[in-house]
Write a structure and sequence with these properties.
globular; 12 helices; Isopropylmalate Dehydrogenase; alpha/beta; 11 strands
């Protein structure tokens, strides 16, 4: 569902209109509000309420399947209403439960607005941490962004740059890179993944002249990863890591902080970026954009990122199923 006042419903309706190129999917949402929105925008999207995920495939070609999650208040596009926050959280919980039960192959989450959820008791930085809690077993969720032929994995994410420098350490880099390598194998079918690890400082520290983090923190992590048998290069200067030629030499770039990873990816493919969460017991992707309250309800939102997220989720689920079958053989 995502934030009801945002563009989630619009891009979902548009994604169904692009269904010949997509796998079967269904929404956890309020069917009546989706019908009203499609009618108001003049889009030919019939909605059929389903009782279980198993019913989705039978109706998908002719209607958008929706598992009911009733909203407490009418939705006004662009206007947050905390009365609808419990339904947003319930939809996420139900999606995670269905994934853990094996009733769905993957979860694709629409953007949420955290400020609107705090009044309903939401106490997480975002979807990723909430889904990790719902998954149980204390998994370490790792964010991977995909777009424009590039995969990036930030070691530190939604914290200040000052705090990122304080939290950056050899064990953290090793843990994130190990999960990234395992995800590339199990979720993307890359038998021997190649990782490129970015330096932190300009010119990757210039041998210590511009900072010693590469020598004291990053290089020891790379040594541990190589001892694990992981193909890893670095520390590499971030300013030469993302040009076309460099991108052919690795399957994912492990970056030290948020913007180091996301600026190149969003520059390469702003409209179709996909957010993937590795390290969970189920597949989860999402569009790499926010709720866009300013254009909600206008019908102008671009569905490309959601369409890409659905496609990536389907491919990951298939790779994961094949990996599990091989492991169990």
């Amino acid at each position: 569902m995502g934030e009801p006042a945002g563009i989630g419903a619009e891009i979902a309706l548009k994604a169904w209109l692009a269904r010949p190129a997509l796998p079967v999917f269904f929404l956890i949402d309020d069917p009546q509000r989706l019908e009203r929105l499609a009618r108001r925008l003049g889009w030919p999207v019939p909605v059929i309420e389903i009782e279980s995920p198993a019913e989705a495939a039978a109706v998908f070609t002719r209607a958008l399947p929706v598992l009911r999650e009733t909203l407490a208040a009418d939705v006004v596009p662009g206007r947050l209403d905390p009365r609808n926050a419990p339904a947003v959280l319930s939809a996420i919980r139900r999606a995670a439960a269905l994934a853990l039960q094996g009733q769905v192959g993957a979860i694709v989450t629409n953007p949420i607005n955290k400020a609107a959820l705090y009044e309903a008791g939401f106490a997480h930085p975002g979807h990723t941490e909430f889904l990790a809690e719902l998954a149980g077993g204390n998994p370490t969720p790792v964010m991977m962004l995909i777009g424009g032929g590039l995969r990036v994995v930030p070691v530190t994410i939604h914290i200040s740059l000052r705090q990122a420098l304080q939290e950056l350490g050899t064990p953290k880099i090793v843990e994130i890179a190990r999960i990234a390598a395992a995800g590339l194998r199990g979720d993307f079918g890359i038998d021997r993944p190649r990782l490129a690890v970015a330096g932190l400082n300009p010119h990757a520290g210039e041998g210590g002249a511009l900072g010693r983090e590469e020598i004291e923190i990053i290089a020891p992590a790379i040594e541990q990863l190589r001892a694990d048998g992981i193909d890893v290069a670095g520390p590499l200067p971030a300013d030469t890591l993302f040009h076309a030629g460099a991108r052919t030499r690795y399957d994912a770039a492990v970056c030290m902080y948020h913007d180091q990873a996301l600026i190149p990816l969003k520059t390469l493919d702003f409209e179709r970026g996909v957010n993937v969460t590795l390290g969970l017991p189920f597949v989860r992707t999402s569009p790499d954009h926010g709720t866009a309250l300013g254009i909600a309800g206008t019908g102008t939102a671009n569905e490309a990122s959601l369409v890409a997220a659905i496609g990536v989720a389907d491919a990951m689920a298939r790779h994961r199923a094949r990996s599990a079958a091989v492991a169990g053989a």
